[in-house]
From TrEMBL:
One of its GO terms (biological process) is DNA recombination. Belongs to the helicase family. RecQ subfamily. It comes from Desulfosporosinus orientis (strain ATCC 19365 / DSM 765 / NCIMB 8382 / VKM B-1628 / Singapore I). Its EC number is 5.6.2.4. One of its GO terms (cellular component) is bacterial nucleoid. Residues 26-195 form the Helicase ATP-binding domain. This is DNA helicase RecQ. GO terms for molecular function: 3'-5' DNA helicase activity; actin binding; ATP binding; DNA binding; four-way junction helicase activity; hydrolase activity; metal ion binding. Its cofactor is Mg(2+); Zn(2+). The chain holds residues 1 to 519 of 704 of the full protein. Keywords: ATP-binding, DNA damage, DNA recombination, DNA repair, DNA-binding, Helicase, Hydrolase, Isomerase, Metal-binding, Nucleotide-binding, Zinc. Residues 216-363 form the Helicase C-terminal domain. It catalyses: Couples ATP hydrolysis with the unwinding of duplex DNA by translocating in the 3'-5' direction.
Amino acid sequence: MIEKALEVLQRYFGYTHFRDGQQKVIGSLLQGSDTIAIMPTGAGKSLAYQIPALLFKGTTLVISPLISLMKDQVDALQQYGVPATFINSSLTLSEVRSRVQKAVQGQYKLLYIAPERLESDSFRGLLQSLQVSFMAIDEAHCVSQWGHDFRPSYLHLGPFLKSLPRKPLIGAFTATATEEVQTDVVRLLGLTKPNIFVTGFDRPNLTFSTLRGENKKEFVLEYIKNHEDQPGIIYAGTRKEVDNLNNFLVRSGIKAGKYHAGLSDADRQKSQEDFLFDKITVMVATNAFGMGIDKSNVRYVIHYTMPKNMEAYYQEAGRAGRDGEPGDCILLFSPQDVVLQRYLIEQTVFHPERKMNELKKLQGMVDYCHTPRCLRKTILEYFGENDIPEECGNCSSCNDEGEVMDITLEAQKVFSCIYRMRERFGIGLVAEVLKGSRKAKIRELRFDELSTHGIMHDTALQEIKDLINYFVAEGYLQLSNGEYPVVKLLPNAVSVLKGEGRVSRKISPKTSRQESDKD
Ligand code: ADP
Ligand code: ZN
């Protein structure tokens, strides 16, 4: 089967071989299994349904939410000699009728339609006469309220599929799908025992690093000077931060520009062009920068502030090294970042469930900042890829030459303090009790009388908090969901308390922080 697919790939598209994920996805569809393919943007999802469409009898329906994209795809297919067309709101009624008629006569291998079309009874009627054996649903996460891009019109897909005389084979494609979204896709589209593939997320040419406790401004300046003339992007958390950092860099003689939503259209346009045409080498920006810009030789992306979740981080960091040459992705973080992101989530108008979900994703990001494990593995597992090697050899964890220290005693101190505080408080208060604070709240709760009160008075408060975060990232502790996350003991921690397990930590320049976080 796959040989035939390869032949089609070569004959129509002129490529010599499939990419990693494509082959699995195409194989699954060709053997007739409903398939969910989760592949990042640019990984080649389109071919993964276009090739089966060319091999199957009859016409394949492709559901696609973006009118402009639809036209591009169809134009590209026609250039390759593949008979394809689209139907969306840009067409007149008679044009729609004519295209459907041609489809019924078998003149197209692929028919792209916008999901809104399915809301119309008469359009659905027209489609009844079409023999659909395969239906590809692009941006399938739009069906789920959990997704970042829920589209009510996608909810018509389920009933539409049910209304067909024979249920077609379904391929659902998306770049992002958490467990919740996957469950929704399966349920709302009525998929039967689908094969789910998560693939293509790795970007081997990128080096990932996390750094904390650095003087961020000095670090950035130093880094830029050491990478003279190499284009790079620095993402900061707020407009004000962008303005400040950009001023600082310009004053320090760096060819930097800035981009955020507070600038006029003209200023933004100019900034973007200056960067594209190498008039400036460094772009300091908020997350408003990047959508749709296509600069392939960006050599580094530095995050000056921790983003709100791994999806956002990976998308932004992924703008480095698009040309396949090495790229550096550095995340600078400080505890205040978490406070800011948490605050921003609280300020949204999302319903409570959605907020909880956002907070959970934020925790994934915080874990990434604290994990001693391979960062690439952490990223890929976050997105759901399996079978990732323990070490990539190309991230700050793998390259960390630090010493492994036994920290069982510290762990026991922390865990027993949490236990004595009845697992009802957050990281901040636990750390303060360990440090020995006598502030009013602690006295009121009589935590100053606990045997663990002040048991870590020699350690800096921030270091105690870091340590607790480390235990969270390492799966000893859990942070409850919600506005005020509470630290709880996981079974691993209980074993350590019973003296049944030991805890170690790599101590390196990265973890032994300098006290210079402030500007
Ligand atoms: P996605 O839909 O996942 O964002 P696309 O389908 O648009 O990605 O593909 C991204 C790019 O990769 C396109 O330019 C496409 O032609 C190219 N591409 C896809 N598959 C292959 C392949 N097997 N070999 C070479 N290039 C490919
Ligand atoms: Zn690694």
